[in-house]
Specification:
Blueprint (H helix, E strand, L loop, with lengths): L2 H38 L5 H4 L2 E2 L2 E5 L2 E4 L4 E2 H21 L4 H6 L13 H25 L13 H38 L6 H13 L1 H7 L5 H9 L2 H20 L8 H19 L2 H20 L1 H39 L2
Antiparallel strand pairs: 1-4, 2-3
Helix pairs in contact: 1-3, 1-5, 1-12, 3-6, 3-12, 5-11, 5-12, 5-13, 6-7, 6-10, 6-12, 7-8, 10-11, 11-12, 12-13
Length: 346
């Protein structure tokens, strides 16, 4: 077998394995979605879903308030579940469809598979979860405590609180501050570049920026991630907002009353970084579903199928390690090619 044929065979094998793993994990996401309402509205879960609570609303990092009236927990959960469902539908269809990238996965470069967030999600979640575990282990070894999340003893109450946090924290820590920056930045750029926008186009830009930042940037001629990649498609101001919101997100976990210790600042900031970056890459559905993975998805399997929970986490961590290894190899390979090219032209 010639070297070229061997290289093609290896790429094909990796692509098939990657697609199969992604399909398996995405299937587990859909199963988790179906389990949520089934658990909360079960005879045992009705003790929680029938209650009425005043709930916190986080609008902008630290600006928030409680709902003026107590809301029915079951109805709020159905609203949350509906938002997650819409996010999954958007993740399936946005930029390029989930089934579309898989159908073309063997005839295009493998990186094109990641044009769809639902395909990229298992890879990102596995790498993020592995990074969190590694950070916690390293810090604990060096005497920096992580602590443990303080959840209600009632698993159904904990499910609701975690599901609620997945949405409300993304709105408060990610979407509103980054979207506010983007709206100001894009209107400023549009005015600077003499881009003429009608009232309708201005309204569209204002509404699009919080939902799909990359699409909004294209409306005023700003470089986008889809066209220029992460390095060229994210401005310095956007990077600042990603890091700023990530650090605030990390500090909020420690300074709040959730049971976390100082070691959680680092890991939560890393998770926040992933959420902020995916927000700019794929749209608002990406960070919400990434938060959903850590809160809703993990807890659903923990309280309903503990053995499956252990197996899924083990599988996800192994997948994450392999992804980090592949990411490192590709990075080193790219660096080697750049250095070699410079030496040859030097």
């Amino acid at each position: 077998m010639a070297f070229g044929e061997l290289k093609t065979f290896i790429k094909l094998t990796i692509a098939i394995a990657l697609i199969l793993i992604v399909l398996l994990l995405v299937s587990s996401y859909f199963l988790a979605m179906s389990l949520g309402p089934a658990l909360l509205f079960s005879p045992d879960g009705l003790t929680v879903s029938s209650q009425h609570w005043r709930l916190p609303i986080l609008l902008f990092i630290i600006i928030g308030f409680y709902t003026p009236i107590a809301l029915n927990v079951g109805l709020v959960f159905l609203f949350l579940w509906s938002v997650f469902a819409v996010c999954f539908i958007s993740a399936w269809k946005f930029r390029e469809s989930f089934h579309g990238v898989i159908e073309k996965g063997f005839s295009r470069p493998m990186k094109k598979l990641f044009d769809n967030w639902l395909f990229a999600m298992p890879v990102v979640t596995s790498m993020t979860l592995t990074a969190v575990i590694a950070i916690h282990s390293f810090q604990e070894t060096h005497g920096v405590p992580t602590g443990e999340i303080s959840l209600p003893k009632n698993p159904f109450k904990a499910l609701f609180e975690l599901s609620y946090a997945a949405l409300i924290e993304e709105i408060g820590f990610r979407v509103t501050p980054i979207a506010a920056f983007l709206i100001i930045y894009l209107f400023w750029v549009g005015r600077k570049n003499a881009v003429t926008l009608s009232l309708r186009q201005r309204l569209k830009l204002f509404l699009t920026a919080p939902l799909y930042p990359d699409k909004a940037k294209k409306m005023v001629g700003v470089k986008t991630v889809s066209d220029f990649g992460v390095k060229g498609g994210i401005s310095l101001g956007e990077w600042f907002m990603i890091f700023f919101t990530s650090i605030i997100f990390g500090l909020a976990h420690y300074l709040g009353d959730g049971g976390w210790e100082v070691g959680k600042v680092t890991s939560a900031s890393v998770v926040g970084l992933a959420m902020g970056l995916t927000y700019l890459l794929y749209g608002v559905q990406a960070p919400i579903l990434l938060h959903w993975f850590f809160n809703y998805y993990q807890h659903i399997y923990f309280i309903s199928m503990y053995i499956i929970f252990i197996l899924i986490n083990l599988f996800t961590v192994v997948f994450g390690i392999l992804n980090w290894l592949a990411f490192t190899i590709l990075g080193l390979h790219k660096t080697f090619k750049v250095v070699t090219k410079r030496l040859n032209h030097g």
